[in-house]
Amino acid sequence: MEERFWLESWAEGGTKTSFHLREVHPHAALLAEQGLLADAAVLVPLCGKSVDLLYFAEHARRVVGVEFVPEAVEQFFADNGLTPAEDPPGVFTAGNLQIRRADLFQLTPSDVGPIDLVYDRASLIAFPEDMRARYVAKMIELIPPGARYFINTLEYRPVLPTPPFTVGPDKIEEYYGRHFTIEHVRREPRPDHRMVEKFGLDHLTEHGFLLTRKPLAP
Ligand SMILES: C[S@@+](CC[C@H](N)C(=O)[O-])C[C@H]1O[C@@H](n2cnc3c(N)ncnc32)[C@H](O)[C@@H]1O
Questions:
Q1: What angle is formed at CA 189 by the lines to CA 166 and CA 117, rounded to 5 degrees?
Q2: CATH fold label, 3-12+28-183+190-213
Q3: What are the strands of the beta sheet with 148-157, ordered from one edge?
Q4: How far does the centroid of ligand 1 lie from the alpha carbon of residue 205, in Å?
Q5: What is the pLDDT of residues 106-138, one digit of tens each?
Q6: Are 151 and 173 in contact (CB under 8 A)?
Q7: In the 3-class helix/strand/coil scheme, how is 133-202 assigned residue by residue?
Q8: Which atom, in ligand 1's list, is nearest to the CA of 48?
Q9: How far apart are CA 22 and CA 90, in angstroms?
Q10: How far is the C-alpha of 151 from the C-alpha of 207, rounded, in Å?
Q11: Contact, 182 vs 209, CB < 8 A?
């Protein structure tokens, strides 16, 4: 979606930001259980004001979130009682946690530094299909060989015209299969998910995929 959509969503709040969860997502905890956070540098693209950032700051060495809506960044630090230093402009740091107030598509590998793990919840699926190729290309550019990339998606029917968009295992293979090995680590039917009742969905499944970047082709 375009920047205006997200600026308006954050300005309106309420149901427009219902993607924001109060609790740490179980998939973030899964990464800790699998030992993937220990001493890791974690990148969280499209981080919103997710409390998962705090969880990663506690369990990993370094966390970098990327979010372009100023309100989301301000709320993250205010809600959590943190006073970040801003240096250079738009880069906010509190302890081992940094949020870059920036358009993900402008980010370069040197902006984020070496990363071991990317955590993608409600990020790939925030984009409609015609914008997704650009996001996928950016992830391929940012993630170095050997690094891990966790993706959480929702798959549901009937298809909806607004985020979160439906993305299942076939699409993950299509988008990333050339550059990553893919493990499908979670497939959880969620008849109780808030979207099922709200949109009258027939079914909704939450997926978790753990990708590993392949070596660069010679
Ligand atoms: C669906 S929300 C997910 C937020 C977060 N991952 C979570 O789990 O709560 C998507 C977020 O990405 C931000 N966003 C969308 N496009 C972006 C872009 N190109 N660069 C940086 N942030 C972006 C939006 O403002 C919004 O906060």
A1: 65
A2: Rossmann fold (3.40.50)
A3: 85-86, 91-94, 97-101, 62-67, 41-45, 117-121, 148-157, 203-213, 180-189
A4: 21
A5: 999 999 999 999 999 999 999 999 999 999 999
A6: no
A7: HHHHHHHHHHCCCCCEEEEEEEEEECCCCCCCCCCCHHHHHHHHCCCEEEEEEEEEECCCCHHHHHHCCC
A8: 27
A9: 25
A10: 8
A11: yes
218 alpha carbon – ligand 1 mean position (Å):
34
Task: Please list every protein residue whose CB sits less than 6 Å from any atom of ligand 1.
Answer: 6, 19-20, 46-48, 50, 66-69, 72, 103-105, 121-123, 126, 163
Largest CA distance in the chain: 50
Write out the two tokens for 20: 């924001």
**Rounded-to-integer distance, Cα 38 and Cα 189, Å:** 30
Q: Which amino acid is at 123?
A: S
Cα–Cα distance, 48 to 57 (Å, whole number): 15
For residue 39, pLDDT beyond 80: yes
For residue 134 the two structure tokens come to 């650009």
- Give the residue, out of 7, 23, 46, 80, with the most ligand 1 atoms within 8 A of its beta carbon, to mutate for a pocket test: 46
Give the domain ranges of the chain: 3-12+28-183+190-213
| Whether 50 contacts 28, CB under 8 Å | no
pTM over 0.85: yes
